[in-house]
Design brief:
There is one protein chain. This protein is α/β, with parallel strands linked by helices and 346 residues long. It has a domain of 215 residues: Aldolase class I (TIM Barrel, Alpha-Beta Barrel), CATH 3.20.20. The protein is 31% helix and 17% strand. A nine-stranded mixed β-sheet has the order 6-5-4-3-2-1-10-11-12. The protein binds iron/sulfur cluster (2 copies). One iron/sulfur cluster (SF4) binds next to loops.
Length: 346
């Protein structure tokens, strides 16, 4: 067997798994990535049974240590045995759910404690009522679950954001605004947000949304000049020089990738410390899901992390917190959460 390095000594010091557990959902939001393809997507779902999932995650823990499993979808709480899977996972992993919170939170609280569970509970005004959502949020928050709310800044639902923010602030619950990525009325987003819309988004969420907008829809040059400090400018100049060097290399047949991917030809730890798992068990190096980035399949038992960071050779990078070596200041903050809490004595 290959020698496996101890992941606790490699930043971010534990493994991260984004697990798209299934492509199915009881909501049908118009801005969902899958809104036009649910029937096709559902064909990719695979359920090998509770015992098989227990064995798969136990094997991963033995090889790589515990870590953080971020369960997404679709809606994870429509997946068979999700409570039982969670109960087993939290023995070795922290678990985070992207969920629309449309399920029975009282039952969950009775069966699974708050110590190793985090919720990124999206609020979708097309299918949920804010006041009802707030009641569930308050219950879970009061019971001690790590908690945050995600909200899609679709052009049609920007207006009420400050109100939601105020109500959530009162409960000390954070609101992460996700810039809309898609097409609305013939315009591509997030690049089509007006400057006023961007300011509104940034005023509601100064951290995540601002960083995501910076990654996906950077400010115009004049504005950037006013907001960047000189240290950042120096760093950007260095990066630009590096990119220019690659672009001007006549022997590099893929030099044009450097124009579309600022991480091109850099060493990235995605695939060594992170994997994206699809509902059929296929695990990829990162969200880009390129065939050459396939790490194996969890259900078939062929999954393996890389043992070293590898150079990024892709034409674009979809990740705003890609684990680029020597650029930890740009991403480490994101991969620090949630904290691993010991179980309370009951
Ligand atoms: S709740 Fe989430 S997964 Fe379900 S339709 Fe809406 S955006 Fe898609
Ligand atoms: S596309 Fe981004 S996240 Fe994926 S390997 Fe390249 S740099 Fe890393």
């Amino acid at each position: 067997m290959d020698k496996i390095q101890n992941r606790a000594n490699i930043r971010p010091n534990r493994c991260f798994f984004t697990w798209d557990i299934q492509y199915a959902c009881n909501f049908k939001c118009s801005y969902c990535f899958f809104c036009n393809s649910w029937e096709e997507e559902k064909k990719k779902n695979r359920y090998p049974g509770l015992e098989k999932w227990k064995q798969i995650w136990d094997d991963i823990c033995k090889k790589y240590g515990g870590g953080h499993v971020h369960i997404s979808g679709g809606e994870p709480f429509c997946y068979p045995d999700i409570f039982e899977i969670t109960k087993h996972l939290i023995k070795n992993f922290t678990v985070e759910f992207d969920t629309n919170l449309s399920w029975d939170v009282d039952k969950f609280m009775k069966e699974i404690g708050p110590e190793r569970v985090k919720f990124a509970a999206s609020f979708h005004p097309q299918f949920a009522k804010f006041e009802e959502h707030l009641v569930k949020i308050k219950k879970l928050k009061d019971a001690g679950y790590d908690f945050g709310i995600n909200y899609v800044a679709h052009p049609t639902q920007l207006e009420n954001m400050p109100y939601y923010k105020q109500k959530l602030d009162e409960l000390h619950v954070s609101l992460d605004v996700m810039p809309f990525r898609g097409t609305y009325q013939g315009k591509e987003y997030p690049v089509s947000y007006t400057e006023e819309e961007k300011r509104l988004i940034e005023s509601v969420d100064k951290n995540t949304a601002s960083r995501m907008l910076e990654a996906y829809a950077p400010k115009k040059k004049e504005e950037q000049k006013n907001t960047d400090n000189s240290e950042n400018n120096e760093k950007k100049t260095e990066q630009k020089e590096e990119v220019n060097k690659i672009q001007s290399d006549p022997n590099d047949s893929t030099a044009h990738y450097a124009k579309t991917n600022k991480h091109y030809h850099k060493l990235c730890r995605m695939g060594q410390m992170y994997t994206k798992i699809l509902p059929n068990g296929d695990a990829y190096r990162c969200c880009l899901q390129k065939p050459e980035g396939l790490l194996g399949n969890l259900i078939d038992g062929t999954f393996k992390f890389y043992e070293e960071p590898k150079i990024c050779v892709y034409d674009k990078c979809p990740c705003w917190v890609a684990m680029i070596t020597d650029e930890e200041e740009n991403w480490l903050f994101h991969w620090r959460t949630p904290k691993v809490r010991p179980f309370l004595n009951k």
